[in-house]
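Dear U.,

Please find below the material for section 3 of the report. The protein was modelled together with adenosine-5'-diphosphate; I have listed the sequence and SMILES used, followed by the predicted complex structure.
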Amino acid sequence: MTDLLLAPGFFSSGPVRTALLVGGGAAVVSGVVGVFTVIRGQTFAGHALADVSSAGGSLAFLLGVNPMLGFLGMAGIAAAGMEAVGVRRLRGRDLATGVVFGAGLALAALFLYLATTTTSTTGAAITVMFGSMFAIPAATGRLAAVVGLVALAGVAAMYRPLLLASVHEDLAAARGVPVGAAGLMYSLVLALAVALSAITIGAILSTALLVGPSAVALRVTRRPGQAMLVAVLVALAATWLGILLAYDSFVWTPGHGWPVSFFIVTLIMAAYLLAPRRA
Amino acid sequence: MTPLTVDGLGVVLGGRPVLRDVSFRVEAGEFVGLIGSNGAGKTTLLRAILGFTAPSRGSAHRGTVGYVPQKILLDPDLPVRARDLVALGLDGNRFGLPLPSAAKRRQVDEMLAAVGASAFADERVGRLSGGQQQRVLIGHALVRRPALLLLDEPLANLDLHSAAGVVALLGRLCREQGIAVLLSAHDMNPLLGVMDRIVYLADGRAAVGTVDEVVRGDVLSALYGHHVDVIRVHGRILVVVAPAEELAEPEQHATLLPPTAR
Ligand SMILES: Nc1ncnc2c1ncn2[C@@H]1O[C@H](COP(=O)(O)OP(=O)(O)O)[C@@H](O)[C@H]1O
Ligand SMILES: [Mg+2]
């Protein structure tokens, strides 16, 4: 019976440990950044960034370099580009948004096709889009740790200006906040969060980790700092529990398990549906 | 330093001169009403004073400023309490994480009390009523004791009772703390008891002076460039702008109130 809930070897497995560490890092960063995403009403930008970054991850597979670098590069370029064009103006332009970010996915499709036909890398598409948490190389883990720490340091440094600018840009500008710089900073931190999520639960699903836990947090608390704490806890719980369940699923269905991402996103969805409207 | 000096200010938006030549000053402890109908350029003038919009001519010089923007729509689910927003008025531009401080908490509590917002200090700002939200925004703008307070149509969308409360609060803060207040409104009547002077905007220009000096048929007719009647009834002032062309419909002027309004 206990084998069904905690299959043998969970804590001694190297890939599991890497998954717990990198997944945990992605959860912490996504929880913190996601609260700003939700306050700013820019869920769409997070998703768009993820779509574009999937092209970077796919290109990395094609070229045989670390996928994290691909995700990071494309997400960073997309973030800077969106700031330059003006995210707020983009927001009202569904068509432009759909076309531009559809192009990101089209590139991803091309690179993934070339990768599977020329290098016989099977599973690249699944890894880029939906993640392969038990197959994260240790080197990627170290890079992810650096990325996560940079993102958290950035948010800590800009916490108040970013919060005020996210509540209302004119209030922030009148209070002496460089609103443009704060927006750029946010977009870059968002790019880091998306890249981190992309290597764990995949580019397509990264928005779920970004936005879901924050949506839960906004129901449960009315204070900004607490909201970030709750979002981090929900994201961490969903990620770690998801990893455990996926590991256990190898016992449930011998021969193959179920994807980690499926469990994580389902758990986040459940938390959102069950969260009490307390505050 | 004078809290606000506006000198020959002009602003062009979308190729059209919205403000042509506006000059006035606001002294410490003075309450000035910025009056004009919709589209007269009140918001444009305030944004130029804030430095959000570059002037095409002239200049605006000011001291430290607090600002209450027009028509703020805050998400009801925003995880920000009234006291959080006031605290951000104090140090929202600072880098680093906010550390808990007894002195800061006292300052925020005092400001919340001064604007009559203590009772809902721990509510989400987005869930407050219009009048409550205005009080919190005024607290946010004033908590670091600026020389100048700019408010853009803070009485719009408030019921008569809430509007009277906000006006009394602003009048008191202006006198007691020596703050220079510039408040825009399309209806001057709720402000008649507190305004020291008026800046009346029309056609990109301003008439400046006391209400009795400015709100007169001859002065406003010259400002609008065509005939204007000023009618005083029951202590209220109605400005009636004649149709610009013979056949045009009478302009629905904002200061023309229905007879039912007290
Ligand atoms: N960004 C803009 N581009 C072009 N015209 C503008 C812009 N913003 C405002 N206007 C025009 O400037 C005029 C004054 O606007 P505004 O300052 O908002 O008036 P008020 O606040 O007195 O109602 C209006 O005719 C408005 O249409
Ligand atoms: Mg206006």
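For the text of the report, you could mention the following: The interface with chain A takes residues 50, 52, 65-67, 69, 72, 74-75, 77-81, 84-85, 88-89, 91-98, 122-124, 137, 140-141 of chain B (CB under 8 Å).

Regards,
Y.
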